[in-house]
Sequence to fold (138 residues):
Amino acid sequence: MDQAPRPWIVMIVDDDALIRSALTIYMNNRGYEVIGAVDGSDCLTKLSTVMPDVILLDVMMPGLDGRETCRLIREFSQVPIILLTARAQKTARELGMAAGANGYITKPVSLKEVEARVRALLPSPTSDSTNAPASTSP
Fold:
């Protein structure tokens, strides 16, 4: 009996509950499993028990900010990380990439762009058959 492939897991780390909720609903509806975290410390705690396939990480959060969280994640994992931020300046993007991020999206985000960026960082279905590709239906 064939086992159904597991869905891709996306961790969404944002202190803004509305953004976290909107991204969670959209990604769930597209076939992803979503793990939410309210800040950098919550993210690191959850990473001790589950490793997502991609992390969407807000930069400007109270306490442990996104860049520092990204740097700390890079000490133990190469999971793809996309930073989300309201700051569009080139230096802000450069600092995020220097911290180890794989991508950068400026808020307000387009949900379709977020999914496209996530999909671009996931392995192709032929390279890892343990994951199911996200649904492509609207």
